[in-house]
User: What shape does this take?
Amino acid sequence: MTPPACDGQSQPLTTFFSQTSSNSQTLTTGYISNTAKSTSDTEMHEPKSKSSIAILGCGDVGSTLAYTLILNPICNEVILVDPKTALLEAQVRDLNDATYRGNTGTKVRAGTHKDAGQADIVVITAGAKQKPGESRLSLLSRNLHILRSIFSSMQPINPDTILLLVANPVDILTYFARKLSGLPESQVLGTGTSLDSARLRGVLAQKCEVAPNSIDAYVLGEHGDSQFIAWSSIHIGTTPLTLALPPTILTPQFRHEIAAHTRGAAAAIIASKGCTAYGIGNIAASICKYILYDIRCVRPISFYQPELGCSLSMPAVLGRKGVVRAMPVNLDEKEQEELKACAENLRGIIEGAESEWAAKEKLEEALRRDTLVPLEEGEKGEEKGEEKA
Ligand SMILES: NC(=O)C1=CN([C@@H]2O[C@H](COP(=O)(O)OP(=O)(O)OC[C@H]3O[C@@H](n4cnc5c(N)ncnc54)[C@H](O)[C@@H]3O)[C@@H](O)[C@H]2O)C=CC1
Ligand SMILES: CC(=O)C(=O)O
Assistant: This one.
């Protein structure tokens, strides 16, 4: 079958920049090969035969993703894994009820972590979520613990599996998933700022009165408070934002309001409904499609940045091997500073988590030694004496 096109956007043309010095950039125009007929993300596709997507965690996000994959079938099988067995069974039954009308080729089943490790794509939604008013970073300790237990249960992992992290804080977990899985870094990605970028396109579309998919706009960096908008590369169609909007509208106040809206969107939704699920379900399903069909869409995605020492979102070409390549982006001086600050912030959190984990492991090791080491002769005598007493 013909692979579906990238988001149904009519422009297969991707504009990118190659940097010639710290402040001057050369504009290059690149074509992402896209011979597919233009179909939209919401259009039905035949599932790829013998392909499977495992979803770890079948709460709000995991089940919404599974439902999206049923409605837009791209794989044969969705495997759900969750330690809450009653919830898992109920979700599988409810989701399969949505398949019996015969309009999908995708089946849903319950599986183990070991089964999941053999899937083509493993999506990790397992973990705690924010309560109203809580930050994503407050989930780190709990969700890192879950992540570690997931990787010890999933072994041996299919060496071709692509890991897609969704659980928060997604950039930090993406960094650790790369270390824990032992998979090549191109195969470990996080949804990152894809959702923030969709929210940005949404609000800009309203302000500019154009369709969201005519806007090319990226939020980059952390899926969290240190994220930033790459204002200097926003285009509406082929028109730079600075040409598309008059300076009387594109004021610092306008930029500030848009950035605050984008950064605060999750908290605002969680305050009223306790979770966000539809947006991320749709984004994660699209990323799975780009991977399974080797579509080569360019998306802001969280992946390891060797020069920054952390995982964060930058534009990347997505295909069957995960991150096929990073796509250079033109950042102005302010944006470069924001990227630097964002990476420093994430590196600090990673270092804190690593030393907290090392201390925990030392303590566990000491406790194990304490219970396992046989008692010395003298100690045995003392123990007997204690018994007599
Ligand atoms: N990256 C993003 O843009 C977004 C990320 N999220 C994050 O996704 C995560 C999940 O959110 P929800 O689905 O709303 O939470 P939820 O609480 O509804 O579901 C989480 C599920 O994970 C399961 N789980 C726990 N340990 C597990 C393990 N070892 N293996 C498999 N499953 C396990 C739990 O039993 C639970 O059913 C949260 O961390 C949330 O912050 C949510 C929305 C957007
Ligand atoms: C929960 C979350 O990370 C989001 O909706 O952006």
In short: Residues 333-372 form the longest helix (40 residues).
